[in-house]
């Protein structure tokens, strides 16, 4: 019985010593892992300076500790600044609605006259990656004052036109004739690429506001508009040809061609008379 008690006590003391040893070893390893190599080098150099007195060595060691604290403080400040910057950026991304566009921030002006303007929205993916599905589509907003004429043009893109506000007359050149269509608020129409068209605001008081969704057919994400006969502002596509070529092709004297080109120099959106508006309007309600 006494032998068993002695044996149990020996085993207990063995495990107790092993436990104390492991704890001490773990603490030593932890100290070694946590010790800063630069700090250790700094302290080692302080101890190796033979000309240093004991007081000098203590001062040197204190400076090593001070430099370590300054470095740790700097790292903490940089880490905090990065976290704050990341948080602010995250909050801005959350607050910014990818489906809301601001006139001054997200639109660029392509046409600006006394009669109206045309503004083009930047590419959808510049606003948000959530809009990648319509990356190659472009949106333009046309605004025209009362009794104004938007000069003839055609686009190298398919166009879905939506009448937001006002009353419009749309003239589409189809083969050998011009089809005149009246548009009321809420009306929508598809215009094939390359179709010449003109637009009239037939209202005497209210502005016309049209949304034009362009679907490019040549260059993804880009569309161009081309102006028809007559005019220097906007410049007609015919101005690229010499007078000799134009006279021969159109069988028209140069003087008459010059008068035609000089008629339109007020920009692509300009005011017209009430009589001219009536003349451009269809004689009967459109049935498109």
Automatic annotation (TrEMBL):
Keywords: Signal. Residues 68-103 are annotated as: Disordered. CDD domains: cupin_7S_vicilin-like_N (cd02244). SMART domains: Cupin_1. Residues 68-89 have a biased composition (Basic and acidic residues). Residues 90-103 have a biased composition (Acidic residues). InterPro entries: Cupin_1, RmlC-like_jellyroll, RmlC_Cupin_sf, Seed_Storage-Functional. Residues 99-258 form the Cupin type-1 domain. Residues 1-26 form the signal peptide. The keyword Signal applies. GO terms for cellular component: endoplasmic reticulum; protein storage vacuole. This is Cupin type-1 domain-containing protein. It comes from Glycine max. The lineage of its organism: Eukaryota, Viridiplantae, Streptophyta, Embryophyta, Tracheophyta.
């Amino acid at each position: 019985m006494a032998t068993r008690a002695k044996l149990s006590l020996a085993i207990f003391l063995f495990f107790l010593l092993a436990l104390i040893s492991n704890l001490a070893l773990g603490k030593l390893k932890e100290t070694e892992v946590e010790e800063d190599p630069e700090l250790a080098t700094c302290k080692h150099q302080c101890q190796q300076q033979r000309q240093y007195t004991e007081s000098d060595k203590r001062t040197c060691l204190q400076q090593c500790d001070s430099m370590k604290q300054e470095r740790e403080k700097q790292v903490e400040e940089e880490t905090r600044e990065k976290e704050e910057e990341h948080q602010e950026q995250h909050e801005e991304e959350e607050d910014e609605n990818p489906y809301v566009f601001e006139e001054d921030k997200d639109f660029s002006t392509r046409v600006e006259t006394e009669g109206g303007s045309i503004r083009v929205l930047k590419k959808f993916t510049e606003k948000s990656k959530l809009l990648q599905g319509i990356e190659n589509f472009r949106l333009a907003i046309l605004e025209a004052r009362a009794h104004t004429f938007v000069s003839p043009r055609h686009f190298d893109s398919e166009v879905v036109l939506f009448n937001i506000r006002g009353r419009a007359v749309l003239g589409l050149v189809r083969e050998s004739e011009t089809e005149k269509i009246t548009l009321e608020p809420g009306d929508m129409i598809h215009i094939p690429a390359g179709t010449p068209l003109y637009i009239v605001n037939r209202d005497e008081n209210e502005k016309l506001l049209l949304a034009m969704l362009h679907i490019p057919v040549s260059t993804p994400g880009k569309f161009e508009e081309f102006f028809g006969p007559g005019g220097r502002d906007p410049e007609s596509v015919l101005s690229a040809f010499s007078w000799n070529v134009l006279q021969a092709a159109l069988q028209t004297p140069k003087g008459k061609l010059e008068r035609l080109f000089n008629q339109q120099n007020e920009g692509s959106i300009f005011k017209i008379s009430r009589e001219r508006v009536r003349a451009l309007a269809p004689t009967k309600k459109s049935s498109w």
